[in-house]
Design goal:
alpha+beta
Length: about 400
C-alpha cells in the first residue's frame, strides 16, 4: 500500500512537470509583450541560497533570441523577464522559445517550451515618447504601474485614446544611450512609448508646444510643466526634454474604414529592414561658407579693436606734442659758476651742480671769502648756493626818528 502511494505521488509530480514544461502565451502586433520567468514555472518552490536559479532563453533550434525580443534578469525581483514588441510580419504566426533553467544548488537543469502566438492588431499611428527618471525597466513589468500610467492619459490628457491606448515600447535609459547614475541607489530611468490610433487631444498639443523649446537640451529634470503634478501624484517623474508626440494624427474612423484594403494597409506597414540612402540623396557640405563665417566674425572684431587702439594711441601722441609746444622742456642739469683757486688768477667756469668738484671749490671759495656772501643750506637734498642777505648795521635814532 505504501509503495502504491509513493508511485502515485511521483506520477502526479511528473504530470505537473509535463504540464509546466509547455506554456502558451499571446501577443499583439505593435504592443509590448512581457513574460516573467520564475522558479514556479519549473516546479521549484523554494530557494536555499541567494541567486539560486539561472535562466537562458533562445529561439527553438537556435542559440539566440529573435531581434524583437530581449531577456534580462532582475536581482531586485530574483526573476528573469522576457519582453519585446512583435512586428507586423509576425502577425498570425507562432514563435517557439526554449527556456533552460539551472538550479545552482544541485546543478539540476530543466527546460520549458514557450509558444507565443502573435495576433493581428491595428497599428498605433500616434505615439507618445517619454522618459521616466524615477523607475527602472523592471518596474514597468508590474501591470498595476502600467495601468496607472495609461490612466493618466486615458482619463486626463488623452481621453480619445481610451479604447486602444497601449504600451508599444519599453527599454532601459542606459541601453538607449543614457548614463548610469552617480549613486547606485538611484534609478537608471526607463524610456516608454504609448500608442493609439486616436487623434491627439488639444491638451496634448499644448503640452507639446510647451516642451518644444527644451529639445535643444540633453536632459532637464529641473523643468516643471503645467501637468507636473498629474504625473507626480501617480508616482512618475518625467524628463520633459524627452517628451514628444509623434504620429500621423489622422481620423481613426477613416483609418478603420480603409483598414481592410491592402493598398492602404501597406502604407502603414512597418518594415524592420534598414534602407540606406542613395549617394545623390546625401546633402553636400559647403565648406566655403563655413570658413567665411569662421574667419569673418573674428576678423571684424579684430579690425574694430585695432581701430580703437590706434585712435587712442594717435590721440595720446597728439596731446603729448601739443603739451611740448606750449611748455618746452628744460634740462634738469643746472650750471653754476665755480672758481678755480689753484692758480693765482681766478678763473670762473660753468659746472653742474651735481659735479662734486664744483661743490668742493665753492666751499673752499666761501671759506677764503672775507664777506662770506655765499652759503649752503643744511638740507642734503637742496644743493643750490644762495647769497646771504646784507649784514644789519645798527644805529641810533634821535628824537625826530632820524638815523644819526
Amino acid at each position: 500500500m505504501g509503495t502504491q502511494n509513493l508511485f502515485f505521488h511521483y506520477l502526479l509530480g511528473a504530470l505537473a512537470f509535463l504540464l509546466a514544461c509547455c506554456a502558451m502565451e499571446q501577443a499583439a502586433v505593435g504592443e509590448l509583450f512581457s513574460y516573467k520567468i520564475e522558479p514556479l514555472l519549473f516546479n521549484w518552490t523554494h530557494q536555499v541560497i541567494s541567486e539560486q536559479f539561472r535562466y537562458r532563453v533562445s529561439l527553438e533550434g537556435y542559440a539566440d533570441l529573435p531581434s524583437w525580443l530581449r531577456y534580462k534578469y532582475s536581482h531586485e525581483y530574483h526573476a528573469g523577464f522576457l519582453y519585446g514588441t512583435p512586428t507586423e510580419r509576425l502577425a498570425e504566426k507562432t514563435v517557439h522559445l526554449d527556456i533552460v533553467a539551472l538550479n545552482k544548488q544541485n546543478y539540476e537543469t530543466r527546460i520549458l517550451k514557450l509558444s507565443i502566438f502573435v495576433t493581428q492588431k491595428m497599428p498605433s499611428l500616434n505615439i507618445i515618447k517619454m522618459k521616466i527618471d524615477n523607475l527602472n525597466w523592471v518596474h514597468l513589468m508590474d501591470p498595476g504601474r502600467v495601468e496607472n500610467l495609461r490612466n493618466i492619459f486615458r482619463k486626463d490628457l488623452w481621453p480619445e485614446s481610451e479604447n486602444d491606448l497601449s504600451l508599444v515600447f519599453m527599454e532601459s535609459a542606459v541601453n538607449m544611450g543614457g548614463r548610469l547614475p552617480l549613486r547606485p541607489q538611484q534609478r537608471e530611468g526607463v524610456v516608454v512609448h504609448l500608442g493609439s490610433s486616436a487623434q491627439f487631444s488639444s491638451r496634448l498639443k499644448e503640452l507639446q508646444e510647451e516642451v518644444r523649446p527644451l529639445y535643444k537640451l540633453t536632459t532637464c529634470t529641473y523643468k516643471r510643466t503645467s501637468v507636473q503634478k498629474v504625473f507626480e501624484n501617480a508616482g512618475f517623474k518625467l524628463d520633459w526634454c524627452a517628451f514628444k508626440t509623434v504620429g500621423a494624427d489622422i481620423s481613426p474612423e477613416i483609418l478603420f474604414h480603409n483598414y481592410g484594403h491592402k493598398s492602404h494597409h501597406d502604407n502603414f506597414r512597418r518594415n524592420d529592414r534598414w534602407l540606406g540612402m542613395a549617394r545623390d540623396e546625401i546633402p553636400d557640405r559647403n565648406y566655403i561658407d563655413e570658413f567665411a563665417f569662421a574667419f569673418a566674425i573674428p576678423g571684424m572684431i579684430f579690425a574694430v579693436l585695432f581701430g580703437i587702439l590706434s585712435a587712442a594711441l594717435c590721440f595720446q601722441h597728439e596731446k603729448f606734442e601739443m603739451a611740448s609746444a606750449y611748455h618746452p622742456t628744460t634740462s634738469t642739469v643746472q650750471m653754476v659758476q665755480c672758481a678755480d683757486n689753484k692758480t693765482d688768477q681766478a678763473v670762473t667756469t660753468l659746472r653742474s651742480l651735481k659735479d662734486p668738484n664744483c661743490l668742493l671749490d665753492n666751499v673752499s671759495m666761501r671759506s677764503h671769502s672775507p664777506n662770506n656772501s655765499y652759503y649752503q643750506t643744511d638740507s642734503t637734498s637742496n644743493t643750490y648756493l644762495r647769497p646771504k642777505p646784507p649784514p644789519y648795521k645798527g644805529g641810533t635814532l634821535n628824537r625826530n626818528g632820524v638815523d644819526i
